[in-house]
Amino acid sequence: MIEAQVLVIGAGPAGLAAAIEASRAGLAVTVVEQRETIGGAIYRQAVLGAPATYQPPAVRARWRRLVHDFAGCGITVRHGSVFLGIDGDGLAIVENRGTGHVEPVAAKAVIIAVGAIEKVLPRPGWNKAGVSTVGGLQIMMKETGRAPEGRILLAGSGPLLIAVAAQMARLGNAPVAVVEAGDPFRHPLTGGGLLAYPTLLAEALFYLKDVWLRGIPWLRATTVAGIEAGADGLVATLHDYTGTERRVAVDRIGLHDGIRPNDFGLSTPPGTSPVVVTAGDCREALGAVAAEADGRRAALSVIRLLQQREEVGTTAALRRERNAQGLLSELFAPVSARPLLSGLTDDTVLCRCENRTVGDLKALCGKEDPLSGREVKHNGRFAMGACQGRFCAENTARLMAELRQDAPAPSAVDLTGRRWPIRPVPIGALVCASDDTSKQE
Amino acid sequence: MTGRFFDWNGSAIPFREGETIAAALTGAGILHLGDDSVGSEARYFCGIGACQNCLVRVNGAIREACLTRAVAGLSVACVERRDHD
Ligand SMILES: Cc1cc2nc3c(=O)[nH]c(=O)nc-3n(C[C@H](O)[C@@H](O)[C@H](O)COP(=O)(O)OP(=O)(O)OC[C@H]3O[C@@H](n4cnc5c(N)ncnc54)[C@H](O)[C@@H]3O)c2cc1C
Ligand code: FES
Q: How far apart are the CA of A11 and the centre of ligand 1, in A?
């Protein structure tokens, strides 16, 4: 059995900041990270010799400070280790990918900082090989120092698309176009509100200037309505706000419709031990600056909770980032307010892991008595597959609400439930773990 | 070539020290990582271990290609090939 006073899950900005803060308060901290490197989604490290990805000076400075402070604390990081959950006895369960064994960890406190996931709306063909998330394309670019090859289309919504377009261009392969469902130029007043957030504004302009200077088409108020296999590569059908349809042949497509907390399966264990606090984008998806601030808040909360005092609430820094993200969502709000369902054919895949389609969901929702989220999962296998609903539960819930306006609208968690393991794990490995624990007792 | 390769369904895939299996396969132009047991196309998607779309067999064990570092001599195959079961 591994022991730690504070176990931090995830070595992104939230986890690192939490670890630094707890360690400086004199607590013995262990960090568990599934990858071989620290940094999380925003600070994914390049392999040796690869050029660094183009990022604003403020972002690079934040990372340098974080690494410096973290190194100064001498905190143990268990790499290649996947956190699975906290069992009924209050032990954190971690799968060691090196040995293939599951290891129980006895900790007084656990800080969970497993980050965000990207939202991807269903569109016919979104499930094809050659389609990735935009963030997925970006972090591979950060890791390899190489832009994705061939003709690349970035589509969906939000400032990340612009950042990735600029970063790709700097590495020698600009995307053929950026397709944006919103149109920030239609909201000049909201845009003006960004003046209150100079760092954010500077970051946005840093990337936008590259997109402009290099003439990368930024097709606003436009969506990718569908993706098909073409003669060589993929063909995307674009719809713009005037109703005009256009087809573009590309090699790869990146999709991104925002981010949301990766909070799937995170449940609070019964009993009072260990103290469990979530931090960063897996608690509320507010971006890297907020994640760092929230990591510090989580560490202070743990210290207080261990002294039987109450958790630290939302700080002013978090409220500020929340307001900034609110402005960005308004700026990038989709121009078309059509229901999600209207663009989807019956054979559009909704849940890729179990290959469940819009037609399958319609059949389930056509029953006389509306099914609950849980029933749609158990009877229809939606949100039941390997991703545990991360990429389909929210979309399925939204479509259920559109299909059955007579029934209460379900949420993603109605479909997924909250049960560990938070990641698929071989049953054999779990059985070994419980044997190990019983030997300790 | 410096001699760092792993095996992908019988072909030798070069990689750089520290690269994930997903990055090396992508670099070799391989985007379709086979069809999984329900017939969905396996592929690199989220890049952060969340979507499980990139599952492959690494020396027989099912692993996320986007999380697993390439190591010389590894045997990597599509999940559909159940030679180890
Ligand atoms: C693909 C992607 C790209 C992004 N790119 C940017 C960007 O360029 N700029 C920007 O401002 N924001 C970006 N974001 C937003 C991002 O969420 C940042 O706001 C920031 O990285 C959040 O910090 P965090 O510490 O909360 O989470 P993360 O940085 O995501 O860190 C979470 C860490 O936990 C680890 N982890 C996850 N699950 C487990 C588990 N079960 N067991 C063990 N370890 C686990 C992960 O490997 C990761 O290292 C991106 C998000 C995504 C998903
Ligand atoms: S690409 Fe999503 S888990 Fe690997």
A: 9
Q: B63 C-alpha vs ligand 2 centroid, how far in Å?
A: 10
Coil vs helix vs strand at A156: strand
CATH node for A144-255: 3.50.50.60
B45 lines ligand 2 (CB under 6 A): yes
Domains of chain B (ranges, CATH numbers): 5-84 (3.10.20.440)
pTM: 0.96
Q: What is the pLDDT of residues A102-155, one digit of tens each?
A: 999 999 999 999 999 999 999 999 999 999 999 999 999 999 999 999 999 999
CATH topology of domain A2-115+262-308: FAD/NAD(P)-binding domain (3.50.50)
Residues A239-284: pLDDT tens digits?
Answer: 999 999 999 999 999 999 999 999 999 987 777 789 999 999 999 9
Q: Where would I find the H helices in A10-156?
A: 13-24, 57-73, 134-144
Q: Do domains A2-115+262-308 and A341-415 have the same CATH topology?
A: no
What is the DSSP-derived secondary structure letter of residue A347? Answer: T
Q: Which of A102, A151, A352 to mutate to test the interface with B (most CBs of B within 10 A)?
A: A352
pLDDT in tens, A381-397: 999 999 999 999 999 99
Name the CATH topology of A341-415.
Answer: Arc Repressor Mutant, subunit A (1.10.10)
Instruction: Please give the angle made by the CA atoms of A425, A427 and A430, to the nearest 5 degrees.
Output: 80
Of the candidates A15, A90, A34, the residue with the CA atom closest to the CA atom of residue A279: A15
